[in-house]
Structures
1.
Amino acid sequence: MESTIKETVPFTWNFIIKTPDEMGVFPVNITVRLEYNGETVYSKTFSRILLLGLKPRYNASITVKAPCNPDGSFDPKTCTGVFVVEEFSENPILYFLGIAHKYTSLIGFSRIDVDLGYNASFLPVTLEIALVSADGEPANGITLVHMGFESEDYGRGYSLTTYVKADKEGRASIVVPLMALKSLSELEGDYSLKIKVRRLGSSIELGETEVPIKVVVIRRGDVGSLLVGIASAVALLLAIFLDAFRRLSTLEIAYAALSASLVFAVTTIPGTIVWPFAQAVLGPFDWVLTGILYAFLMYAIYGAMVKTSPRPGVFTLAITTKWLLYLFVFGVRNPFMSLIWLATTAFIMEPLLYIFGGTKKGATLGIASAFALGRFVDAYVDMNLYMIFYRLFYAQWYINFYCIGASIYTFAGAILGCKLAEKLRGVSHE
C-alpha cells in the first residue's frame, strides 16, 4: 500500500439490506471497504445475525380534556368540552355602564393524550389537529397555535401539525390553545376537534377521534342594572335587619339567633365535612346528598322558627346570624360574593313569606310553599351567579333539575319543621 492515511476522519454510512420474505434467523456478513484513488485502504467484515419477524403494529388511543389549565392540569368536573369566556372592557367605567365591551383573544386550552401501548416506547408520531364548525366547514375566526407547531396558514389556520415522541410507556400529551381572531360573539356555537395520529414519516394512520366542543360567551348584559339589583338587595337586607331589631321582642330575637346557631351546628359544620366526599362520589349530583343537610334539615329548623314566631324579619335575622357565624368560624375568601348570596336570599324569601301568609298567620302550607318557591328561585339565581363570576357552564336541564330537587327538599323539610313546632307548642301549653 503506497499511500497512508495521515488523519483520522470520523464518518457514518447508511445502507439497505434486502431481506427474504419469510421470517426466521439469518446470518449476515457486512463488509466495509474504503478506497482511495482506486485502491483499497481499509477493509473489514462484520458478522451479524438478522432476526426477521412481524413488524409491531401500533394503535393510538386518543382522549381530550377540554378545557384545561395552561400546564395541562384539569378539574374532572369542569372538563365538559365547553369553553366559557367572559366579556370585559379595558375601561371599567364604560364597562359597568354597559357601554363598552371587549372580548379576550384566548378562548382556552385543550389537552390531548395519546396512548400508543407499551410496545411503542419512545415512538415518534405526527398529530394532525383540525377545528371544524358544526356543519363540517373549517372554523373561521379561530386559530390553533402552540410553540413548535407548524400551523397551516397561520393567522387563519384552523388546523395544525405537530410532532411528539412517546415516553417509555408509549404515552404522549400536548396542550393546544384556542385563539379567537375576532369577536367571540360571532364565534359562539358548536365545533368539533378532529385529531389524527400517524407514524412519523409515514402515511399510516394509527388512530383518529372527533370531540365535540362548545364556545359560550357569558354576557353580563347591562352591568348597571346588575349593580342596581345587588344594591337593592343589600339595602333591603339592611332595612329588614334593622326593622327586625326594632319590632321583634328580645325573646324573638334570641329565638332567631338560637335557630341560626342550631342550623350552623347541625347543617353547616357537617355539610362542610360531607361535601368533599359527596363531590368525589356523586360529582355534579352531590346536591342529592348534601341537600338533606342544606335544604331539608336547614329549612325544617327555619320552618319551625317561622311557625313559632311568624313575624316579618325573623328569617332574615336568622340567616344573617348564621352568615356571621360562618365568617367567624371558617372565614371566607370573597366576602363580597358571600354578602350578595345572603342579600339575594333575603330579597327573595321575605316577600314570599309575607305574601303566602307565613309571617302574617303562621300557616304551615304558606310557610312551606314560600320556602319551596323561594328556594327554587334562589337556587336559580345562585347558579347564574356561579356562571357569571366563576366562568362555569351548566346545561339548562341540569339547572332545572337542581332547582326542582332543592325545592322538593325544602318543601318537605319546612312541612316537617312546622308540624314539629305545633307539637312542641302543644307540649309547652300542657
2.
Amino acid sequence: MKKHLKQLDLKRIRITDSLFGEYVNKVSEKIIPHQWKILNDQLEDSEPTYCIHNFRIAAGEEKGERKGVVFQDTDLYKWLEAVAYTIAGGRGEHLEELADQVIDLIGKAQEPDGYLNTYFSVNAPAKKWTNLVEGHELYTAGHMIEAAVAYYQATGKEKILNIAKKNADLICRVFGTGKGQKRGYPGHQEIELALVKLYRETGKKIYLQQARYFIQERGRNPNYLQAEIAGRGHPEFFPEFERYDLEYSQAHKPPVEQDEAVGHAVREMYMCSAMADLAGEDADSGLMEACSRIWENMTTRRMYITGGIGSSGFRERFTTDYDLPNSTNYSETCASIGVMMFGQRMAAITGDASYYDYVEKALYNTVIAGINIAGDRYFYVNPLEVVPEFCTEHTYMEHVKPVRQKWFGVACCPPNVGRTLASLGQYIYAEDEEGVYINQFISSTADTEIKESRMKIKMDSTLLQDGKVQLQVQSSGPGILNIRIPWYSEKWECVQNGISIKTQPDKGYQRLCISPGDTRISIDFHVVPRWMGANDQVRADAGKTALMKGPLVYCLEEKENGRFLSEIFVEENTSIEENAPAEELVGNVPTLSYKGIRVRNKGADGENQLYGSVELEKEEVDLYKLTREILTRLSPQAAKRKVHVEVTGEPVEYVGIRQILDEMIYNICENAIKYNKEGGKLTVWVGNTLQGKKICVTDTGIGIPENETDRIFERFYRVDKSHSKETGGTGLGLSIVKHGAMLHGAKIHVDSKLGEGTKIELIF
C-alpha cells in the first residue's frame, strides 16, 4: 500500500483568502490572546477554568485544590498547538516568548518518571492509570504530544519535545502485553494518532508500535474496559456513564472488524484517523478496509449535508442509519474537525480527491460556524434548525445554544477550532514525489521542492463568488500539478497558458504537466446555486430542501429568528438570484434570494388558541396587476426565445394566498414561453366573466396530444421529454398549479392542438 500524499511544511504556506485569511489572522490577533485570558481566569462574566492555576499547583508554584474537569489540561495543550501553527504560518513571533514560559511550566509539572497530568498528580496520585474509561489520562497525553511535535517543527526548540518523549516512554512502559504491563487502552482515543506523529518526527519505532498496540488491543475479549467498569462498580467522573455501553467508545469489537460509524463521534474520528495513519505506515489492508467501511457508512447514511456528524445529544454520538434530525442534532464542532482529519488521511493513502469533498463541507459549514467573526464566541453544538425559546432547561433542545457562548465547562471545541484554523494550510496543499496537489480553493501561496525542482504557487480563488480559480506557477524544473475537481462542478474548464485542457481526471484530480518557467492556469468550475434534497429514508427531511452554492450550505434567517420561518415554502425549480455580500460578513460571500411562499394557518391564530380548523391566511390580490408583474419577470426568457408577449384585461380583485397565486400564474406562463416556437406568441387575458374571475393563457407552441392533456398536471410528467432536456425544469410546475387551484377552489381548463398551441384557463 503506497502512501501517495504528504503535507506541505506550514512554513511554506501563506493564506491570503478574503474569507479564511480573516479567520487565520484572527487566530493570532484575537483567538489565542482571548483564550489565554480564559485559561488564566481573567475574563469577566465567564466561569473560571482553573487551567493555568492547576498547572502551577502541580508545578509547586501555588497551593490549593486542583479544579475543573478531569481533562482540563488539554485546553492548554491545544492552545499551545495553535500557537505553534501560528508561528509556523508567519503570524506568531510575538507569541513565542509566552509559549516558552508555558512550556517551562509544563516541564515543572511533569513528574520524574515522565508522568504528566495535573488532576492525578495533585488530587489522586494513587489512582494513576486506574480509570481509563473516564480518567482521560491517555487522551490528555495525546494532545500534549501533538502540541509538542507542532512546536518543535515550528521553532526547532527541543524542550517540549523532550517532555513529550519522556511522557510517551512512560506510556510505552506501562501499557502492553509484556510482564507487569497493563493490557489497557484509552476510553477516549487520541494518544494513538499523537504517537504516530511522534514516531514520524523522532524515527523511534517504539512509538509506532505503541500506537498499533492501542488499536489492536481495543475491543478484544476479555474486554479491558468492561472489566474496569465492573471492578469499580460506579462512575467516578461522569454520572451519565452509569449504564456504559462499549459501543460508545468503539470498544465493542476490534477496530479492524468494525464497519459502522458508532458511539461518541469525536472518539470515532480520532480512532479512525489513527487507523488510517497506521494503515499507511504498515501497509495494513485490514485496517484500510475497516476505515473505508466506516467512512462509507458515515458519509452515505450518518452525516448531515453540512458535514456534521453525531446526531444525538445523548452522549454526543452516532445513532442509526438515516437518523438525522435537524433541530435536536448535536454535530459537535470537534466531530467535524475529526471528519477533516480522517478525510485528509484517507486521501493521503488512496490519492482519491473525493475525500476532500467532505473535508471541504465540514470546514465551510460546521468548523467556521463554530466561532464568530470576532473570534471570541463559540458553538459547541451545530444544529440545522434552531428555535431559541425551545433551547431551555428540561426541553429536548437543552444542549442547543441559540447564540455563541464565551466558553464552556467542557471546552474542547474552542481551542480545537483555533488549532485547526492555524494549521489550515495542511488541508489546502499536499505533495508526492512528482508534484503538488491542490485540495482546497483558498487564496494562498505555497513554496516547495519536488525532486530537484522548486515550485512556487500563487492561488487566487473566487470560488464562492463566481467559481473561478487563478493559479500562477513558477518552477525551476518539470513537475506535476494536480487540481481537485469538486463534486459540485458538473462541468469545468481548465486553461493552461492559453490552451484548453480536456484530459480525463485521475481519481478526481485534473493532472497538469508543469514546464520550467512561468505557468498560468485558469479554472472555471461553473459553480451555481442549487437546491439539494435528502435521501427519502431521512424522514426528518421529507418535504424539505437545502440551498447550496459550491461547498457552502446557506441558512434561511429572519431578524431574531423570526417566529414564522417554518411557514416558508419553495418549489425546487424556483430560480435563485445572487446578491451582493452582506456588509457585516467577511469574505465577500454572496447572499442568495428566491421567491418563496409563506403559508399561515389562520384557523388557530393568536396566543389563546392552540388548535383550530385549517384556514390559510389570505389577502386581496389584483390578478391583472399580479399577472403583469409576473410577465415582466419572465420578459428575459421571452426575449431569449423571441416570443412576443401581449397582456390585456382589467383589474380583478380576488381574496387568496398571494404567493401561491403567483406560483400558479408564473408556472403556466413560463411553460407557455419554454414550449413555444421560436418567434411565437403568448397572449394573456385577465378579467371578470359570468363563469367567474378568469386568467386565460394562450401560446403558439408545440401543443399537447389529446390523449395526454389529462396527465400534464401530474408530478414530474413531461409531454416531450427530449424537449424538456433542452429547456430544463423538473416537470413539477403544472403539478403546483393543480394543487394551488384545489387550495383556492379554482377550475382549470386545457384546450390544445398538437403543433399549433395550447390555451389554459384558470377560473376562480
